[in-house]
Amino acid sequence: MDQTPQEIKALIIRFLQRETTEAEIAVLQAWIREDDVHRQYFDEINVTYQTTVTLGRFNPEKIDAAWKSLDQRIREDKKSNQRFLSPILRRTFLKVAATISLIALVSYVFHTYWTQKTLSRGAVVYHSKNLSTRVDLPDGSKVWLNTNSSLEYDNGFGIVHRKVVLTGEAFFDVEKSQQDFIVSTKTISIYVKGTRFNVQAYDDSDVRTTLEEGKVELKVKGGQELYAMRPGDQITVNTELKKVVKDKVDPSDYSAWKEERLVFDNVPLSEIVLKLENRYKVNIVIDTALAQRERLTMTIEHETIDEVMELIRLSSQIKYKKEKSQIVIYE
């Protein structure tokens, strides 16, 4: 027997609550790709679910009402003769559909727990504060997050899209697929199918994308032009002027941080300062003109911050001093 719309809704809700098996996800993904109407159906349930979660933050009575409304719509859909899927998952779907009414009866005591649990599943956020972190995404892609960085994606990832939001720095090893993998930052969007690349997008710095393998298309937000990248290409976007600069570099220099190394090849002192602040958790004060003018080549592995500052002093004409909790660099 084929599946009815209410059974599809039940599967989608299980997916939004992250309770589906890999086999069920594969079935749902195939169903969504089958027809644009199916994709719209998924979006409709997703909106209802997320609205319920949002209401639950403020008013437990409203969340009960939202679930009851959804349950009523499921009952009405039983009148439909439409069929969507094979019978393999029918019993599972019916069980889940039955639980929707029970959710509406959850007491206020359990409601708080349920809301917090659902909220945590509504948007997956990884934050790397003091150490670099590896993240394995649902589609098989791998991401290494540098310190003071975060990565976020929602429940639709791997089903209706492959989009992540990055703040900070990360190295991506993207699983090949016909579906675009999109990295969004405050300044740019990056579109790939399957490739390896590094993105540096801290809040108060230029955004730098370095391609190691494959192909990448980059677009500055607010602009129209797509910039194509090939292995060894690096595109730097000035966050204030939106100026785009393309260079040829050694990509391994810009992903060395994954192995706890910092490699600088004739780069501005401003970039070195940013990396040192992130790695050593220190505040470094330096004149902007000096930071942009001075360029250095150096590799940092296991040195302390004091050893690094001495290396910088010996490699250039600058001086430095420690003042309380910060380091001041001057000429």
From TrEMBL:
Pfam families: FecR, FecR_C. Residues 132-217 form the FecR protein domain. This is FecR family protein. Residues 261-329 form the Protein FecR C-terminal domain. InterPro entries: FecR, FecR_C, Ferrdict_sens_TM. The chain crosses the membrane at residues 93-114. It comes from Chryseolinea serpens. Keywords: Membrane, Transmembrane, Transmembrane helix. It comes from the Bacteria. One of its GO terms (molecular function) is sigma factor antagonist activity. The lineage of its organism: Bacteria, Pseudomonadati, Bacteroidota, Cytophagia, Cytophagales.
